[in-house]
Automatic annotation (TrEMBL), chain A:
Reaction(s) this enzyme catalyzes, per UniProt: 3-O-{alpha-D-GlcNAc-[(1->4)-beta-D-GlcA-(1->4)-alpha-D-GlcNAc](n)-(1->4)-beta-D-GlcA-(1->3)-beta-D-Gal-(1->3)-beta-D-Gal-(1->4)-beta-D-Xyl}-L-seryl-[protein] + UDP-alpha-D-glucuronate = 3-O-{[(1->4)-beta-D-GlcA-(1->4)-alpha-D-GlcNAc](n+1)-(1->4)-beta-D-GlcA-(1->3)-beta-D-Gal-(1->3)-beta-D-Gal-(1->4)-beta-D-Xyl}-L-seryl-[protein] + UDP + H(+); 3-O-{[(1->4)-beta-D-GlcA-(1->4)-alpha-D-GlcNAc](n)-(1->4)-beta-D-GlcA-(1->3)-beta-D-Gal-(1->3)-beta-D-Gal-(1->4)-beta-D-Xyl}-L-seryl-[protein] + UDP-N-acetyl-alpha-D-glucosamine = 3-O-{alpha-D-GlcNAc-[(1->4)-beta-D-GlcA-(1->4)-alpha-D-GlcNAc](n)-(1->4)-beta-D-GlcA-(1->3)-beta-D-Gal-(1->3)-beta-D-Gal-(1->4)-beta-D-Xyl}-L-seryl-[protein] + UDP + H(+)
Single annotated GO MF: metal ion binding
Name the UniProt record assigns to this protein: Exostosin glycosyltransferase 1a
Membrane topology annotation: Single-pass type II membrane protein
UniProt entry keywords in alphabetical sequence: Disulfide bond, Endoplasmic reticulum, Glycoprotein, Glycosyltransferase, Manganese, Membrane, Metal-binding, Signal-anchor, Transferase, Transmembrane, Transmembrane helix
Originating organism: Astyanax mexicanus (Blind cave fish)
Short name of one Pfam family: Glyco_transf_64
TrEMBL record, chain B:
UniProt KW keywords: Coiled coil, Disulfide bond, Endoplasmic reticulum, Glycoprotein, Glycosyltransferase, Golgi apparatus, Manganese, Membrane, Metal-binding, Signal-anchor, Transferase, Transmembrane, Transmembrane helix
Pathway the protein takes part in: Protein modification; protein glycosylation
Membrane topology: Single-pass type II membrane protein
Coiled coil: 257-284
Claim: Nucleus is one of the keywords in the record: no
Protein name: Exostosin-2
Reaction(s) catalysed (UniProt annotation): 3-O-{[(1->4)-beta-D-GlcA-(1->4)-alpha-D-GlcNAc](n)-(1->4)-beta-D-GlcA-(1->3)-beta-D-Gal-(1->3)-beta-D-Gal-(1->4)-beta-D-Xyl}-L-seryl-[protein] + UDP-N-acetyl-alpha-D-glucosamine = 3-O-{alpha-D-GlcNAc-[(1->4)-beta-D-GlcA-(1->4)-alpha-D-GlcNAc](n)-(1->4)-beta-D-GlcA-(1->3)-beta-D-Gal-(1->3)-beta-D-Gal-(1->4)-beta-D-Xyl}-L-seryl-[protein] + UDP + H(+)
Residue ranges occupied by any Glycosyl transferase domain in the UniProt entry: 458-703
Known role: Glycosyltransferase forming with EXT1 the heterodimeric heparan sulfate polymerase which catalyzes the elongation of the heparan sulfate glycan backbone. Glycan backbone extension consists in the alternating transfer of (1->4)-beta-D-GlcA and (1->4)-alpha-D-GlcNAc residues from their respective UDP-sugar donors.
Amino acid sequence: MQAKKRYLILVSAGTCLFLLLCLGGLPVPASRGGLGRRDGHRPGTHWPRYSEHLQPFVPWDQSESEGFSAPMSPRQKRDANSGLYKGRRCRMDSCFDFSLCEKYGFKVYVYPQQKGDKISESYQSILASIEASRFYTSDPGQACLFVLSLDTLDRDQLSPQYVHNLKAKVQSLSLWNGGRNHLIFNLYSGTWPDYTEDLGFDIGQAMLAKASISTENFRPNFDVSIPLFSKDHPRTGGDRGYLKYNSIPPFRKYVLVFKGKRYLTGIGSDTRNALYHVHNSEDVVLLTTCKHGKDWQKHKDARCDKDNAEYDRYDYKEMLHNSTFCLVPRGRRLGSFRFLEALQAACIPVMLSNGWELPFSEVIDWNTAAVIGDERLLLQIPSTVRSIHQDKILSLRQQTQFLWEAYFSSVEKIVLTTLEIIHDRVLQHVGRSNLMWNSLPGGLFTLPQYSSYLGHFPFHYAPLGIKPNPKFTAVIHAVTPLVSQSQPILKLLVAVAKSQYCAQIIVLWNCDKPLPAKHRWPATPQPVVVIEGESKVMSSRFLPYSSIVTDAVLSLDEDTVLSTTEVDFAFTVWQSFPERIVGYPARSHFWDANKERWGYTSKWTNDYSMVLTGAAFYHRYYNYLYTNYLPASLKSMVDQLSNCEDILMNFLVSAVTKMPPIKVTQKKQYKETMMGQTSRASRWADPDHFAQRQTCMNKFASWFGTMPLVHSQMRLDPVLFKDQVSILRKKYRDIERL
Amino acid sequence: MMCASVKYSSRGPALIPRMKTKHRIYYITLFSVVLLGLIATGMFQFWPHSIESSTEWTLDRRSVHDAPLVKLPVSSPIPERGDLSCRMHTCFDVYRCGYNPKNRIKVYIYPLQRFVDEVGVPISSTGLSREYNDLLSAISDSDFYTDDVTRACLFVPSIDVLNQNSLRIRETAQALAMLPRWDKGMNHLLFNMLPGGPPDYNTALDVPRDRALLAGGGFSTWTYRQGYDVSIPVYSPLSAEVDLPEKQPGPRRFFILSSQTAIHREYRIQLERLKEENGEALLLLDKCSNLSQGVASARKRCYKGQVYDYPQILQESSFCVVLRGARLGQATLSDVLQAGCVPVIMADSYILPFSEVLDWKRASVVIPEEKLPEMYTILKSIPHRQVEEMQRQARWFWDAYFRSMKAIGLTTLQIINDRIYPYAARTYEQWNNPPVVKWSSVNSPLFLPLIPPRSPGFTAVVLTYDRVESLFRVITEISKVPSLAKLLVVWNNQNKSPPEESLWPKVAVPLKVVRTKENKLSNRFFPFDEIETEAVLAIDDDIIMLTSDELQFGYEVWREFPDRLVGYPGRLHLWDHEMGKWKYESEWTNEVSMVLTGAAFYHKYFNHLYTYKMPGDIKNWVDAHMNCEDIAMNFLVANITGKAPIKVTPRKKFKCPECTAIDGLSLDQTHMVERSECINKFASVFGTMPLKVVEHRADPVLYKDDFPEKLKSFPNIGSL
């Protein structure tokens, strides 16, 4: 009986199971087969192969017939567009008058400040930066772009900085012209509770350089998105990034951190309110506080007290410096201060601000320096950042530092970047390429008018896989008349001309006496071009003469003493360091703590930070940069003193490369004057000369906003220099004989 | 379901032994029945299905006329016009894509249907075009494709809207709205190449499409929703018809060529004026008026009765004009790129194809229409080298992104994919660098110009086997170097334990001994966690001749060049013309291309690189041959940075570090032969010779200067 029961139970169980399997098994293939099967037409899972001859999408005659039926003349069409697309649909094509920029180039006019106008510190900085830049013009008739002197930075009605009656004030400007070719800077717009992006006055056809701008309101290639910066942001120079070295592996103590306010209700509150879901108080530390505003207690929710307590346990600075990633969630507005803070701290920003048009997005490829997250996928953020490979982290982190130093570290850089972006649009096909903006040394130091070809710059040889031109052009700066055949300049000319790498020699005749007759110059295998300086000023030795066709320039003083071997060796070294100054006379700078200023020394020291251009190779691009990048104030100072041009060149090159120049071999005495034969006119003999150089150092440092010079403790010698081998085996043996 | 049954049967046998024999038979039969049932079910499920999917590829040739007919009621709803404010975060449902480890979106294609209106007239005059069919097949064959509509992130309708001319706007819109997953067009992608129609020729597809994404050819800045739509090229059918072999960049017969036939009269007059001014440099072609019957007019162009083959003639010019026609997007652009001719694009407000990822500055010249008369001057100002690079770049763009509907379709999907997974997006270099550049270009992973602070110091890693006495001397010597932070001894001898702790020299810095599992040379380059500094000094256990000043100076030089190998003994590679291969040179030469890692500073990153990223079998090869690990390191660093190493300080009489057991010349020679072989082997694995030769070495600024020694930072340099 028992057995039978058991048997029955088992049989029924077995049958049930069998039936279940049969029935339940069926849906499996159905779901795998996909919908195609159900509609009875497409049993395959892939797009079927159609056997018949299908028609082309465009019939042969279509394009031709259409072209000729185009009814409207292209010119009419352009005019129609510019009439049609105004206001929110403004583009350069419809709202910008390019013709204003044609005659005088890209010049920016700043309206004179009216008495009684209240201007915030930040806006003062912006205006001062424009006025100090090479784009500034005080003549509105030459201007291509106009900038208001009315403070438009803070358009939050509740803010004390808010300027009232802006609408009337703007309309009354005689040059306003409906806002055409005007640029309006703005950091804050709208107010509680909706924080719209409206500025509270009609901007007409003006362009906006605005922080926290949303992609919906952003007019591509017309507006410029700028970063939100605090009123303490330095005007010039700015601090360097915090990254001092690349640690391996690149992970830091925390993976992801954030510390900031939480808005309990209203716009932009959702994301920050949800952060606690991801917080794990170990390596993902996302802290919020409710404690802000007057009546936070009224709105506080259940988590506030706990959050506030956790918030106080951590130090923001410590977290910032010890985290691999930093969360940058939107606040009330899309942008937040956290962004620049993270960027400077080499903490890779993780953007969590949907619809924010990132700063300078027109030119900066943010994927190379930040992680762009989606607020909707907040919960995935930790796994996303953890999945990023360490090589990628290494590169993202370095890029944050490059971008920070190139475009964000000072108000001046932010303003210049904004202007250069607009400048690029005006230049059109000559504008900077993506690579110029996103690789060292960055767009501000890469002037596209010099050349549109990357290979003409000293910075991109390796990325392009090319080498600089294997020859050089010597430029000798002549200031004394040619009276005797034993003058140093003639010896120098012969020695340089003997170099196998020399393509040509340019003698820049900056002497008041007339040019010597052609036959007075020695006969050389390479052409000697004598250029008579027009203004005979010091800066003219760095003019980008079109006759310089090689990448390398050998800059020489007329009384420099160099042998052919020395020239050859220095040039081979330069080929390895084409972006630096490579040469003989080394000098150093130091901080004079007593006088609280920079000092200049020509003493023999264990290090150096400058290589003077009396005998140095550098890339011809620096001639262009010197002439076109530096402000007239510094260049005229050099011209008036007839001094310091070499120091200024060193400042410039080090500001670009962030690296020291390179001194080659032992040579210390490279002047006739130093060897006892005094040359009458030599400026080096002048006692004031040295004092002036101290002054120059400090003037230059203040314009750069920082001290760009960097010290080096090494010099480069030929491989077998003074080694105990037969001198016959040495290629540069003459160097040792000197 | 399967799982449950397996569990059941596994529990079964345990019961059996306790039962009577009679019952046992019943149970066995019962289980056999269940088992059989299972097998049968399995067969039923999988057998026919697998046959089906295998035949699909070979036998599934069907006709579009088999597609089901769908009648659109007149009152069928019409989607709203495209919303200009749509962006990925507002109109795109990202939850459908979600997180996935491959970071790849899934794309579903609707099955083909033939839509007709109530009286049976189709919504499109062409139906499924050849090109759209190619596009859908390509997507279907790609990694993006899914046939599971529930897992799809992106939906592609099979309704062909490539050419608006052939569409009935209202009915097409109704058909879109009828798609089962349409949901206000959310996550739907439409491909359109020829938007608008006479007389206005709008620059985006006129079919109302709710929130659908538009991959459009010929967007203007006013219709393009940046970051949402994708600007695509207008496909040129000639791409498939004509095979133009790639032409070497360089000067061409003509400077500027205009080949378009449908140029507005105003522009043609301006072009003709340019031609008058600049003569032979310009070639202005038009369509041929008197071609004999049977000649495809699309393939011929004429100038004053002279007939030219199109598109072949494009290869004869440096620059080719691509002017706007009635539409902004022109198929000519594709032909021009294919010919490796640099396009001169004159179409104001036009959004160039794939401009979201492609850097058109490298492949084209964009000139405002108004500046057409200045075209010649503008183009003449472009440096020759740049023109050549543009020619190469133009052809590469065509090869990679224009050549077929497949290329266009997959590029579009990749762009959308990059937006959804931006942290896994392809880089600028990946999108824009042609293979030639990818090969020859170098982007150092340590690219930031940094001079790290002196304070963290360096970690000395000493590789040793059993020369304890010499090792101790090395340790004592190195410990005098001010910037030494830590000593790490890599004990490579598995048969012998390192000496007791008390026997080791007393040093001021932490000293750590790591015992290795195998006696491998690569152990010295392992990125040990114990190395906490950026700088590593690799040093052999017999390098006792380096002074403290020399080592400290080496560290200072490394700080100025943290991305290079900075070392003491220098070596050179040479090309042996007789043998036709590379040769290793350790003699006193004027040049250096390697520094030996018997004594060299380098960044810890290179340890990581050597251990995990060494190309080919080099790492194993080195371990097997117990030689050339230093050469391999030199190759690796030079290859990734494109820079030469830096040899520091004068040459010393090193106890030949590469010939530890000199018994005579013969052994020395075998050694050199072996090292030469290494160079040849590595060069072939790297596919290139990455080593860079230089003629300089680094010395302290005051080296050998007539200057009080005690005032020099590094007085003791070069003593023997």
